[in-house]
Amino acid sequence: MLNIVDNQQEQKITPLLRLGFRPFFLFGSLFATLSIALWLLTLKGVVSVEPLNGMLWWHSHEMLFGFTAAIIAGFLLTAVQTWTNIPSIKGGQLLFLVCLWGLARLLILFGTASMLPLAMITDLVFLPLTAFFVGQRVIRIRQYRNLIFIPVLVLMSVMNLFTYLPSLGFDSAWQARGTHGMTLLVTFLVAFLGGRVIPMFTANGTKTTKVLPIKWLEISALASLVVVLVLLLLKDVGDFNMLTSIACLTAALLHAIRQWRWRIWVTLTVPLVWSLHFTMLFIPIGLGLLSLHFFGANITLSTAIHSLTVGAIGGMILAMMSRVSLGHTGRMLQVGKLMSVAFFAIVISAIVRSIVLAIWPQWTIQFWVLAGCLWCLAFGLFFFKYLPVLSAPRVDGRPG
């Protein structure tokens, strides 16, 4: 990483606010742990909480537009500095963005009905503001290849707006469109970034030859996710079940072929790499479950979607947070036993919440609790392990 920041000026900034990944990874992982713990406690009747728009809305909304959005912001605000050699936001600007995100979470969880407009506006501003901070740096040096993230962030904001429409008097189907649309958009982002970095990380981590992409396969795999996204958004306005089933199956096959080429079997002794491979497998698994659902199998849409949210999205987030946090704090790209346990926990959580639940739906509540506890274990371990890493200066004394 180039020394593009004035080190003397940076020393005046608390380490937690020196780059976007630090606060968003730390508070995002804590939020991921506490929010699922609260969801489980509410599910079991241990506590009673009444967030805006109800507990079910809160759970689906906050895991996507609270937790996931925070990690995306942290990643992009960090990556844009590497891409452009232009310092990213830090200090006061970064603190403002973090506080904006945190305020939205508090208003949604504890706010009254009269506070809905304030909560909605605060929440809806976060991703566009992130897009602005990223986009202005990319445009300044005309690095248009990375502008793809800007329309994706804008579309995510639109999906977020959709989730609020029922509370404003619109049809209740808009909430599902928003959450399903966000799930597919993040899955697209995971697939896109995975194609960029996993073959390279695999080659570097295992000392093997890098697998080169096949252009038609890359384009087809990503385009298939766009088709599935559109069909999911249209599922309440027409009978597209058979078409959606075929589209999901086609997408599953394309992604399975794509990921097979990356040679997961050579990574089994490198946790920072196999964790990426195993979580990416939940893209074809999730798409396959979606195909079965729309074909008429006894698999709920929620079970299929959770294969993507817990496995592909949650797993990729955990793996990438671990890697980025080490690399951008000047540490060796190696994890110990605790994070290996965390990687196992998130993979097993995804298997339980999707595949196992699809086979034994009669044990739904029990499997929800087991998957949720494993999720809390995974992200709780990350928070415990990386709190001293993210809140301290780089070990090599460089900015960041």
Automatic annotation (TrEMBL):
It comes from the Bacteria. The keyword Ribonucleoprotein does not apply. This is NnrS family protein. Coiled coil: none annotated. The keyword Acyltransferase does not apply. Keywords: Membrane, Transmembrane, Transmembrane helix. The chain crosses the membrane at residues 21-43, 63-80, 92-110, 116-135, 147-165, 185-204, 216-234, 240-257, 264-292, 304-326, 338-359, 365-384. It holds the Pfam family NnrS. InterPro entries: NnrS.
